[in-house]
Write a structure and sequence with these properties.
By secondary structure, this protein is an alpha+beta fold. It is built from 7 helices and 4 strands, in the order βαβββαααααα.
Length: 200
Amino acid sequence: MQLIFYTTVSPEEYCRQGKDFPFPEPDCCPHCRIKIPPQKHGFFDRNVITADFSGRILIRRYYCPYCHTTISYLPSFCLPHFQHCVDLIFTGLRLMLEFNFSLRGCLKFLKGRCQKLYWDISHLQFYLRRFLASLKSIMLGLRQLLPRVRLPVEMPAKKEGAQKVLRLITTGFAHIQSFSTRFYEALGYAFMAPLPNILA
């Protein structure tokens, strides 16, 4: 079982602190809800890539002796199954969809700001396709997180719908990490995850 916890610490600082980082300490198992703290169960490491940092970070694990579930706590700058941080991915999406940058223009802009970024156009195409394919599930999440949000009754054209969703995320949440964390808590999967079967 994987959970995302919100943190304002940068990936560089998180990496530097290593095992000394103040990881969340659950007071009960989030799976079976037994009111006894799960046991610490070591770490595993994973890659994280930002505009200016690339390295491996530690992910804290816990183990519930009652339901035998292993719980991993992922910091909010990460997305499950993605190496690049959520801030970088979201910046690329905003440039392409909200500010109408071409793929080449977006890549040039990002590389001008991020000297160590090794993306090529295929990276942007992948994230754009994934975001467009996830619009229905993202809108479902927005309805749960922002009960008064006004969403179209019918799904608009892909680009128009994506632009509207991006505006709702940027105006409804202080930071993309807070949206990503709350979305994962509410729906149990990341907002950039492949479309769940129930929504396909």
